[in-house]
Amino acid sequence: MTNDTIGHTLSNGRCDAKTLPMNKQSVAKAASTRGPAEHAVRDQIVKAAHEYFGHYGYAKTTVSDLARAVGFSKAYIYRFFDSKQAIGEAIVAECVDEIFVKTREAVATGRDANDKLRKFAKTVTSATMDVAFNDRKIYEVATQASSENWPPVQAYVERLQALLLDILKDGRESGQFERKTPIDETCRAVYFALLVFMDPVFLQRSMELLPDAQTEVINLILRSLAP
User: How many CB atoms lie within 10 A of CB 82?
Assistant: First the structure.
């Protein structure tokens, strides 16, 4: 399931407010090769951009700024990324992958479908809040990516919804959840109900409501899912 207008969340690890200079000799050598070496250069650019965005902010940073930070020309950066947004998307992809892995692992520890749904909502929210408190300027990249529905966000939303669908199927098979409502409709409804606590655009306006509001919403959802 996809939704092009609503609901995207993301998170990533902590970054320090400093640039990461590259070793010119090693990068020049990597640029003349293909495969893993080029991936290594790309990863170095993303890491440097992550730190630069974290210090100065996404909006105020240009590709020229990043090129100077890593010690190479803007044209060289464009060998790996066709725009600043493409670099931002790489950072966002890392963010959302980390959130999803944490969420999937938390869900796997659930005792039953009810517990899995609670862990799903709680983990997505807490991981997203980690970015808001630890990497405020990176969180700005997250909110822009969510607002503009960047491709990594679209993919992340699909993965979240697929995980939610698995939880609902588990609940129906175990007899914990009702089976009358079409499951796709149920999945969308539950996702939308939790959206205010998962999407960074909405979450930054809802933090003062946590954790009570989220607990109440989850309780209501679980009551509505009961057979």
Answer: 11
Q: What are phi and psi of 26, to 5 degrees?
A: -70, -40
The pair of three-digit structure tokens given for residue 57, joined into one six-digit string: 């902010």
Identity (one letter) of the amino acid at 169? K
Distance, CA of 7 to CA of 16 (rounded, Å) = 28
Distance CA 18, CA 204 (A): 26
Q: For the full predicted model, state whether its pTM sits above 0.85.
A: no
Q: Which CATH number fits the domain that encloses residue 218? A: 1.10.357.10
**By residue range, what is the domain housing residue 39?**
1-227
C-alpha span between 41 and 139 (Å, rounded): 25
Distance of alpha carbon 122 from its chain centroid, rounded? 15
Domain count, the chain: 1
Average of pLDDT values for 2-19?
A: 35
pLDDT tens for each residue of 48-72: 898 888 888 898 889 998 888 888 8
